[in-house]
């Protein structure tokens, strides 16, 4: 299915909750963060395209500080589930792919990289948008034990851990516990005038 057709199908679901003031592409409106996932594998081709898109994000001095640790087998996912927070385990355990996003806090010459988190965040944004174009859903999880994850995944001490990304095909919200079902709708946004200031902050 073409990306245009995929966006058209997603738009029908998202439209009641989201509209843009300034002619924003439907790609940005259609990307949201559901918690219900189908029991359906993500192809290697699509997963590599999603991670590849993230890797094409811009970065300071082209340092590319982002690092992605991918879990897609039962054994790998079980390790990830151990360091997820209790609430997130309720729904993220059904996602067929989990990706830890980390970043190297040092440049290659050993100097601190003050832009590492900013750049890793940009990479996550690219990942989410490419996933949307592939008809996949993503949800970034901040609630996890970072020290436990770092030890379990053998990550260097100089890496910062930012989020675990759940990736998969969106499922029916009826598969979620009742309290979570109520939250399974695309979120809205503040008015642009509330977050954009011309000249100085007002």
From TrEMBL:
Gene3D superfamilies: NADH Oxidase. One of its GO terms (molecular function) is oxidoreductase activity. The keyword Oxidoreductase applies. Residues 30-77, 86-169 form the Nitroreductase domain. Keywords: Oxidoreductase. InterPro entries: Nitroreductase, Nitroreductase-like. PANTHER family: NAD(P)H NITROREDUCTASE YDGI-RELATED, NADH DEHYDROGENASE_NAD(P)H NITROREDUCTASE XCC3605-RELATED. Belongs to the nitroreductase family. This is Nitroreductase family protein.
């Amino acid at each position: 299915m073409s990306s245009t057709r995929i966006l058209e199908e997603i738009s029908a679901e998202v439209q009641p909750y989201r509209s843009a003031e300034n002619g924003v592409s439907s790609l940005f409106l259609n990307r949201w963060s559901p918690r219900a996932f189908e029991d359906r594998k993500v192809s290697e081709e699509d997963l590599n395209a999603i991670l590849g898109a993230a890797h094409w994000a811009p970065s300071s001095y082209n340092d590319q500080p982002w690092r992605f640790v991918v879990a897609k087998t039962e054994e790998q996912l079980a390790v990830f589930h151990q360091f997820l927070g209790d609430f997130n385990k309720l729904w993220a355990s059904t996602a067929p792919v989990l990706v830890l996003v980390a970043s190297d806090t040092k440049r290659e010459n050993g100097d601190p990289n003050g832009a590492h988190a900013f750049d890793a965040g940009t990479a996550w944004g690219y990942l989410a948008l490419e996933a949307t174009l592939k008809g996949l859903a993503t949800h970034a999880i901040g609630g996890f034990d970072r020290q436990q994850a770092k030890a379990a995944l053998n990550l260097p001490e100089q890496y910062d851990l930012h989020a675990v990304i759940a990736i998969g095909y969106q499922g029916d919200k009826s598969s979620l516990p009742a309290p979570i079902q109520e939250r399974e709708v695309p979120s809205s946004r503040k008015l642009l005038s509330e977050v954009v200031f011309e000249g100085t902050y007002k």
